[in-house]
Amino acid sequence: MGARVGLFSLLLGGVCAQLEVMVDSPVAAQLGSQALLPCTFTVANAPISPEYLAVHWYFQGQELASYDDSLSISRPGVSMDTEQLASGNASLVLHNVTVSEQGAYRCLVIHSPDRGEQSLYLAVLAVPTVAIPSKAVLRGEPNLLKCSVSGFHPADIAVTWLRAGEVLPASPLPAPQRNPDGTFNVSSSLTFQPTEQDQGVAFSCQVQHAALPRGALQTDFQLVFGVSPMVNIHAPTFVQGKAQVLMCDVKGFYPEAIAVNWLLNGVRTEAPRVNPNGTFNLESFYQFKPVAESEGAEISCEVQHETLSRPIVRSVRVHLEYEGTQVSVIVLLVSGTVSALAVAGVAFFLYKRSRAARQMFTASDIVGPKVWVPGEYVSLVCIGYHCSAGTEATWAKCQNEELMPIARGDPSGSDGEEQPLVPINSLYKVQTQMLPLDKGSATLATTLMFRVRSPEDLGARYQCCFISKDGRTLSTKEFGDYTLRPSAQTQGPAVDPAAARPAEE
Ligand SMILES: *[C@@H]1O[C@H](CO)[C@@H](O)[C@H](O)[C@H]1NC(C)=O
Ligand SMILES: *[C@@H]1O[C@H](CO)[C@@H](O)[C@H](O)[C@H]1NC(C)=O
Ligand SMILES: *[C@@H]1O[C@H](CO)[C@@H](O)[C@H](O)[C@H]1NC(C)=O
Ligand SMILES: *[C@@H]1O[C@H](CO)[C@@H](O)[C@H](O)[C@H]1NC(C)=O
């Protein structure tokens, strides 16, 4: 190639040209690497005389570098080895190549009275990064799988989806998005309805791009059969100036990674929380102290999960109760998901509570996961509303007709601060959160946390008991409706996650 280009130069320079300039073109360089733009020259019938020599490099009409007695560089990251000039090497080096440096360069060599020049093209290549952001799918439903390809250059790219080596029909690839550094991103979508036969089968996202060493890159993965969470928000009666506890009850999801956010009038109030490992249920509490302006405010619990294309949002509207007035708490159930597992549309539930009812003690059912896996942690939650001063929450385990008191949730502080997990013994931890309401009444939220054991938890029922100051049992709730799964070590959590879905309510 150099010879052909040189001949061309010779013709340009005229029949008696003494100077021949040669380049290699095009040149390809990886983004961020050091690129050599090769330009060499020969002088016929004479040695190269430095006093007759000048070299100029141009890019986009601008002079990048020049040598004329001394070297002059117009911007950082560019260099030329002047010691090489005597041997006819006028190559330019670009350190840390960027996408904006792609294009045509001109190497002009003058050896008085002769001159010669050549153009060369630099192509900047950036290797794509491939990621499958979510492998979780819902069984028997059309799922959207995405393959995110980022940071590549040039823009030309092909993305192919494969199932066990067979090509799957994907949506047409959208136009790549340009990043600030000039590289591109694109996301390929595949709508796929998985069945049992897809379990354990290798799926791949194959990318073909000029920057890839072997022209293609394949990312293999297996589908994860997920279950969307069911979300409920529980709110107490709102009283101005009194701290309240709201609970967001998130049930039956898989895989376990999940984020729960609390929003006040649509504005996030807390950083997302990720649940502890190994649970399929999560209870998130939000402490709220209404002021007069809180009337009509909307408190929401927002749940994000891999199986949801949009978060599930459950909201409560604040209706403050004043002395002698009727209480009404409107619970708005807003479905923010397209998943068939969630409630469709918008439903309104109106709860009316009389003044008498407000003052009566009530306890929630125990909330806990429906599938227990030995070795994994389980947390059971029970909430007592309108507890009078001195009310305590206790937990007990009932097995083979024998009742064993296991832990006592005794709130040491009544300032509404969250208590640390108190180790009762090596097996159980209890956290009781107490929030005072008016006239010595309070909301008590008690959580029992423990590691599931087999056979110790086979057929066991757990009881949460609220006891008044004078020792009366106010309420006893029992939780025994769960399935003890075979050990996680032998089966792993990915096996039949659909079993994690609790019974429809
Ligand atoms: C020309 O000089 C560069 C350094 O500027 C060097 O990397 C390259 O190998 C040289 N080319 C030849 C043909 O000597
Ligand atoms: C290379 O250039 C990029 C973009 O200008 C810059 O972010 C990066 O820090 C540079 N790297 C080095 C090693 O200089
Ligand atoms: C491209 O993808 C990268 C990595 O996933 C991401 O950080 C970046 O924000 C994306 N750029 C655009 C323009 O979406
Ligand atoms: C939770 O899981 C992550 C990774 O899956 C692990 O790094 C972390 O130690 C686990 N935490 C607990 C409390 O088991």
UniProtKB/TrEMBL annotation:
Keywords, comma-separated and alphabetical: Disulfide bond, Glycoprotein, Membrane, Signal, Transmembrane, Transmembrane helix
Residue stretches spanning the membrane: 327-351
Ig-like domain segment(s): 17-123, 128-222, 229-313
Region (Disordered): 482-505
Record-linked Pfam families: C1-set, V-set
Keyword flag Membrane: yes
Protein's UniProt keywords contain RNA-binding: no
Signal peptide: 1-17
Entry-linked Gene3D superfamilies: Immunoglobulins
Protein name: Ig-like domain-containing protein
UniProt source species: Gopherus evgoodei
